[in-house]
Amino acid sequence: MDADGTYSFSRVAAVQLEGYVGIHLSLSGHPSNKTEIELLIEYGDPSLAAAAATVELRDLQGRLQTRQQVDLINGTNRVRIPASGLSPGTYLIQVRNASLAHPLSLRAVKQ
């Protein structure tokens, strides 16, 4: 706000660093596997030290279905989430880590 009480907003610009991976989530194979969901966490920033993360699986009403602690290392980390007791439907996978301001999320479908 200026001294005369006026204000204006500046334009927001998104920045993408070429070749920067950071932390990226994806699913391996068929997310509809009856016994497990395989989550791939690409931990690609060499400046990030190995660190603990929490992986949560929630239904779309936000109810926690499973939670597990994993140790992330640089490269691809495979996390197997038990799915045999889950009803068919859409679920939200969230990954929390101290280096993330907000959890990363990904949807998975169990058929």
Structural notes for this entry:
- With 111 residues, the chain is mostly beta strands.
- It has one domain (23-110): C2 domain (Immunoglobulin-like, Sandwich), CATH 2.60.40.
- It is built from no helices and seven strands.
- Strands 4-3-6-7 form a four-stranded antiparallel β-sheet, with no helix packed on it. It has a three-stranded antiparallel β-sheet with strand order 1-2-5, with no helix packed on it.
- The termini are far apart.
Briefly say what this structure is.
Helices cover 0% and strands 50% of the residues. It is an all-beta fold. The model has no long low-confidence stretch (mean pLDDT 82).
Salient structural properties:
111 residues; Immunoglobulin-like; 4-stranded antiparallel sheet; 3-stranded antiparallel sheet; 7 strands; 0% helix; 50% strand; Por secretion system C-terminal sorting domain-containing protein; Secre_tail
Would you identify the regions where 5 or more consecutive residues have pLDDT less than 50? none
CATH fold topology: Immunoglobulin-like
Termini gap: 54 Å
Query: Helical region count?
Result: 0
What kind of sheet is the major sheet?
4 strands, antiparallel
Question: How much of the residues is beta strand, in percent?
Answer: over 45%
Question: What's the name of the CATH homologous superfamily?
Answer: C2 domain
Structural class computed from helices and strand pairing: mainly beta
Please give the CATH class: Mainly Beta
**How many separate domains make up the residues?**
1
Instruction: Enumerate the strands of the largest sheet in spatial order, edge to edge or round the barrel.
Output: 4-3-6-7
Query: Mean of the pLDDT scores?
Result: 82
Query: What's the shape?
Result: extended
Please give the number of β-strands. Answer: 7
**How do the helices and strands follow one another from N- to C-terminus?**
EEEEEEE
As a percent range, the share of helical residues equals under 10%
Q: Please compute the radius of gyration using only Cα atoms.
A: 18 Å
What is the annotated CATH architecture?
Answer: Sandwich
